Amino acid sequence: MINLSVNIKSENKSYPIFIESCTVSALKEQILSFLNGKNFLVVISEKVEKLYGKELGFDKSQKFVLKDGEKEKNFKNYKRILEKALKMKLTRNDAIVAIGGGVVGDMAGFAASTYMRGIGYIQVPTTLLACVDSSVGGKTAIDTNYGKNLVGSFYQPDAVFINPGFLKTLDDRQFKSGLGEVVKYAFIEKSCRCGEDLNLTNFLSEKTSDILNRDEKTLSKLIKICVKLKISVVEKDETESGLRKILNFGHTYGHAIEKITNYKKYTHGEAVVEGMKFSFNLAVKRNLIDKNYKFFADDVIRKFNFREIPLFNQEKMIELMQMDKKATSKHIVFILPTDYSTVEEFALLPDEII
Ligand code: GLY
After folding, report:
1. Which residue, 45, 133, 256, 329, could crosslink 100 as a Cys pair with Cβ 3.0–4.6 Å?
2. Does residue 247's CB lie within 6 angstroms of at least one atom of ligand 1?
3. C-beta 139 within 6 A of ligand 1
4. How much is the pLDDT for 1?
């Protein structure tokens, strides 16, 4: 078992991240032993419930099954989760266990952060994207009609249990979506200041087919590298006032793609990949990097055969990027590559982007 830990100094909080391929019933035992007799509510994705519900064997009375899809990350379901917790009479000493992808983790985490002003929660990510990114670092949120993740909190989980075995049954598009975030870590690795040379770019090149074939050992190693990078960033800047912004590489343009297509047409990872390509082009135009690095980055991306996304109306895209949480009244904030595996923050005017 790989055992990592996240130390949030400002809150004097530390929590473990376990990475282990094991049976679902063994995972359940580990969760129960961690909870040590606490009462708990399980928020679980409908797909995961269908595939693993029996094996997990949680009682119906302690389960909230959430339909899949970004549109479920809404006020209505947030309220329902809280009501279920109230009905179960959970106290401040109890916990919520989130089993699913980013939607489940973000919503259950937000419910946990507000229920009785905060109860503990455990993340059990079952998608690649949730394993490498959203389950670690305490970002919780729900979506609104005005945009994604606009209501939320920074609220760290008590533990994260990552079982790469779940990735066997993940549909291909969702798996690739997670790979989009994985590739992002390769392009930001040095800026994560991890203190260890993990060389994710090499790992991606050498192990491309093992990754695409979902070899469990390879996926465990891949997840471990990404999680180490994420921990390094989150420990230095929990609330995204500085360094954590680098995790948004590819996201300014990516979020605008998701928004312009009503979150229906492309997965988050596909949009982020397109956002990274956009950022590489912008960086070449602004002489931040030479063309060779851009061609190299194109090759890394091409290996994973991500879905191509067409260009959209440029004024509309600028307008959407101006609504991004990171934007100021005039400037749009981009994370751009400045060297191999290195990125920096730039605030650009619309004219400089067009
Ligand atoms: N998903 C980006 C972050 O956790 O900051």
Report:
1. 45
2. yes
3. yes
4. 87
Residue 120, C-beta contacts closer than 8 angstroms, at least 6 positions apart: 38, 94, 95, 96, 112, 157, 158
- Hey, what are 84's tokens? 């279920």
If you take atom 2 of ligand 1, which residue's CA is the nearest one?
247
Domain residues of the chain, as ranges? 2-170, 178-353
Q: What is the atom index within ligand 1 of the atom nearest the CA of 240?
A: 5
pLDDT for residue 263 is more than 90 = no
Residue count (the chain): 354
Q: Please give the CATH architecture assigned to the domain spanning 178-353.
A: Up-down Bundle (1.20)
Q: Distances from the Cα of 350 to the Cαs of 8, 252, 316, 329, 330, in angstroms?
A: 36, 13, 11, 11, 8
Query: Considering only 305-314, 326-335, 341-350, which range has the smallest mean pLDDT?
Result: 326-335
Give the residue numbers marked as catalytic. Answer: 117, 139, 181, 230, 240, 244, 248, 251, 255, 268
User: Was domain 2-170 assigned CATH 3.10.180.10?
Assistant: no
User: Residue 354 — very low, low, confident or very high, per pLDDT cuts 50/70/90?
Assistant: confident
Report how far residue 19's alpha carbon sits from residue 178's, in angstroms, rounded to the nearest whole number: 17
Q: Is 49 in the pocket of ligand 1 (CB under 6 A)?
A: no
Contact 275, 253 (CB under 8 A): yes
CA 166 to chain centre: 16
Q: 172-188 and 268-285 are packed helices; what angle lies between their axes, rounded to 10 degrees?
A: 30
